[in-house]
Design brief:
With 460 residues, the chain is an all-alpha fold. The chain has a single domain, classed as Amino acid/polyamine transporter I. Helices cover 79% and strands 0% of the residues. The longest helix is centred in the C-terminal third of the chain and has 34 residues.
């Protein structure tokens, strides 16, 4: 068997890596799920709980993934196998890499469909189609959009082709270069949207919805939501950050960049609320729109406001940028492993994997219910399972010397190692079990035993 060589390409600059890493974390969920979840779970009370979860759960696993990636110097699958062998442990730990790759590519397979919907809404917004929309007309427009399969297929193909083109060019010339352009543009548009929303909308009600603490809404389900949001928003659990960590230079201080990535992701999630909810409240719309905020509620507002066509077009362009920076990182997990193989080049691997995922996207376009099922499997099962296994691997398989070689020697690193060993695995197992139970009840109509219903409470 031919030995797999270490990665020879690295991030060209600290700025480029940070833009790529932040872009991988900042996705469509930051633009609607976080502010909506915060508002429905006690506002700033939820945010305080969320921040604690980021520090105690999200950050340690993020550091662990970067550390494993840089030590392995290969794709997630090959790198974890290499580390297990070098530490004298079973190669069965390689399953973490396979689970992570499966998770990343499964998410990518339906993410490109949602991105195609966003893509389709950009010309709709700029052309002024939303003018005069009420809720019923906007809902009908969304159904017509996703029902126009040929058009969605065209946008999906275009979005996927851009992913293939960028990832095929490699880390420095492809992913890093794209992130250095897209993420600054994303932040400029986001702040522009916030300023406009605060001017034309109801800033006071939005601030109250997001920030005023309401502890009467805090229950056990609030803690589940906060842990899940913290863990999944940062982007750990799918070996994505292991893959990016393999391209880190030895001079990069992993704890510092981990703090920066997690902080930026949280900042975007909170700020996004001030780009959306002032408009929602200012135009008398329903803030409890969930995912419908994107495709149903916001178009109604754009159709009523001055310069609505321009603002709406920029809003969906912003969303597309967020989708793209996340999708290329998900795609890279699979391409990185193919690049490790001696029989295929990076470009060939990107094209071949792109074709397979294109076929999966076609399946989702014609059978939309599959998206909900795959989202359930990845979000409620595979991501927390991947996080549990990564915590155990970094905490118990990596020796103290190995993890200190990647993270440094300090009291913080010692504390992180303790969390990875003893606290995070049972916490994530708890989230996995109750998250699955909650999803089975809500999505599949399976009733909970009375004791669990009491435990989960109204916010479960």
């Amino acid at each position: 068997m031919t030995a797999i060589q270490s990665k020879t390409e690295h991030w060209g600059s600290r700025f480029g890596f940070l833009m790529a890493a932040v872009g991988s974390s900042v996705g469509l969920g930051n633009l609607w799920r976080f502010p909506f979840t915060a508002g429905e779970n006690g506002g700033s009370a939820f945010i305080i709980i969320y921040l604690a979860c980021v520090v105690l759960l999200g950050l340690p696993v993020l550091m662990a993934e970067y550390a494993v990636g840089r030590k392995g110097q290969r794709s997630a699958i090959s790198g974890i196998r290499h580390i297990a062998r070098s530490e004298g442990k079973s190669p069965a730990w390689t399953a973490i890499g396979w689970i992570g790759a499966l998770t990343a590519l499964s998410i990518f397979s339906f993410y490109i469909v949602i991105a195609a919907w966003v893509f389709d809404f950009i010309p709709q917004a700029f052309s002024g189609r939303f003018e005069g929309f009420d809720a019923e007309a906007s809902a009908a427009n969304f159904e017509n959009t996703i029902g126009n399969r040929g058009e969605i297929l065209l946008y999906l193909g275009g979005f996927l082709a851009l992913n293939v083109l960028i990832v095929a060019r490699g880390i420095h010339s492809g992913i890093e270069r794209a992130a250095e352009i897209l993420m600054p543009a994303f932040f400029v548009m986001l702040f522009g949207m916030v300023i406009f929303a605060l001017v034309v909308g109801d800033a006071g009600r939005a601030a109250g919805f997001l920030l005023a603490p309401d502890f009467s809404k805090v229950g056990f389900g609030t803690f589940l939501s906060a842990v899940g949001q913290a863990f999944f928003s940062i982007g750990v659990g799918s070996c994505l950050m292991v893959t990016y960590g393999a391209y880190l230079e030895r001079s990069t201080q992993i704890p510092n960049v981990s703090y920066q990535v997690a902080s930026a992701d949280t900042f975007v999630a909170i700020i996004a609320g001030f780009a959306i909810f002032p408009v929602v409240f200012g135009f008398g719309l329903d803030p409890a729109g969930g995912g419908g905020l994107f495709f149903v509620t916001m178009p109604v507002a754009f159709g009523q406001m001055p310069l609505g066509g321009l603002v709406g077009g920029l809003f969906f362009t912003l969303a597309l940028f967020a989708a793209f920076t996340s999708s290329i990182s998900l795609f890279e997990v699979g391409v990185s492993w193919l690049e490790d193989q001696p029989w295929i080049s990076r470009a060939q691997g990107a094209v071949a994997l792109g074709l397979i995922l294109f076929l999966a996207g076609v399946g989702y376009i014609y059978h939309g219910a599959w998206i909900d099922h795959i989202d359930f499997v990845t979000g409620s099962l595979l991501l927390p399972l991947g996080g549990i296994l990564m915590s155990l691997f970094a905490g118990w398989v990596l020796s103290r010397e190995s993890i200190e070689a990647e993270l440094g020697r300090s009291g913080v690193v010692t504390f992180v190692r303790i969390l990875l060993r003893y606290a995070i695995p049972p916490a994530l197992a708890f989230i996995l079990i109750f998250g699955v139970i909650d999803k089975l009840q809500d999505n599949y109509g399976i009733d909970l035993p009375p004791v669990m219903e009491r435990l989960l409470g109204p916010n479960g």
